[in-house]
Amino acid sequence: MSMRYDRTMVTKTYGQMCSIARSLDVLGERWSMLIVRELLLGPKRFKNLRDALTGVGSNRLSDRLKGLEEVDVVRRTTLPAPASVQVYELTERGERLRGPMVALGLWGLDLPVDERIDPQTARADLVGMALAGTQQKLLDPARRDAYEFHVGDEVFHLRLRDGRFIAQSGPAPIDPVVTVMSDLESFYDVARRVLTPSQAIKDGRVTTTGDRRALVELFDVLVYVPGAPLLTPLA
After folding, report:
1. pLDDT of residue 136
2. Which of 6, 56, 148, 194 could, after both became Cys, cross-link 189 (CB 3.0–4.6 A)?
3. Would residue 6 count as lying in a domain?
4. 152 and 71 inside one domain
């Protein structure tokens, strides 16, 4: 379904009918796509977004969020008690960006890293989100398994929804089938298949609680191959 924009929704436009150009009219402003990236990992408070998006000022972040709200990509809501705090989350339209964003993340994994990039911004949850896009086959849609990762100071989880894995920040909302502990380098090596989960455990680079076999199964399903197309594109 097409969407008609008014002047309050899009202030800069390529002026082209092409759907790519019209998508960039909505998402092409600096920081907008990174806001979507953060919200794909779950609802976030304004402070959480500002902390994650190093270099964005509060005023610019407010402007970008307002613009994304106006085009029905982002909305404000309040978390249920006991949190009862206001957060930003993706709308249904915004959630439909998961597939394209994950594919973009996979495309960028093999780009060179130059001196302008701060290595301290590396995050395991973002690697996990890209990794979820490598899923080779659908699993049983009835499964609701969660896999929790503690990578350095980060905690995130992968969970099954309709047979597909999605990554989200924080602890798993249900008891995970396996909890995985490692440093960032070890997790990255396993994700890129430089190291198998079994070898990482044997070498002491990864430790687990719960069903260790579930970790092996996970990486039988999530298979990163540089340059390979997605076999089951995310909806």
Report:
1. 80
2. 194
3. no
4. no
